[in-house]
Specification:
The protein is about 25% helix and about 45% strand. It is an alpha+beta fold and about 170 residues long. The strands form 2 sheets. It has a 7-stranded antiparallel β-sheet with strand order 3-4-5-9-8-7-6, with helices on both faces. A 3-stranded antiparallel β-sheet has the order 1-2-10. A hairpin with a 5-residue loop joins β1 and β2.
Length: about 170
Amino acid sequence: MKKFVFTAVFGLIFAVCAFAQTEVFSDVNCEYTFDLPDAAWKIVTKPTVTSPNVEYAYGDRFAGNLEVRKVSIKTGEVVSDVILRETEQKLQFILGFVNGKEMDFSGKLKGRVFNFEFVKAGKNMSGRFYYLRSDDETVYVLRFTGLREKLMAIRNQTDSIARTFKLK
């Protein structure tokens, strides 16, 4: 009986550990890595030598979409200024754009997270952009977009991906 209980407990622990494993994104054409907490994240755009940009979808792009971009900034520029500039130059022109909150964020890299809402194909969408500073002249932007309810439901995953984002 003791052997059976021991085997059952050991099997259960092994199963939990196997399900808790995450996939790690890493590519020779990128200078960063991050963990994907769910197998539903599928790569849409692979990085190349000329374009290190990466794109993932959570099932489909309306459920959740991730784009990773590298942005060069002026030495000493604060991340809030980068967010303001991107909002003024790009985001405010999106149909139905509603400015949201901006908050500090900390993971392997520190930065800010910016939330907003917009309309796409007649559907209420939201965006959650993580601006992560790697050095004085570089910010990586993790751009998550999706249907408002769906993106809210996977917020723990978007936070996890941003927390594990790091340079090689």
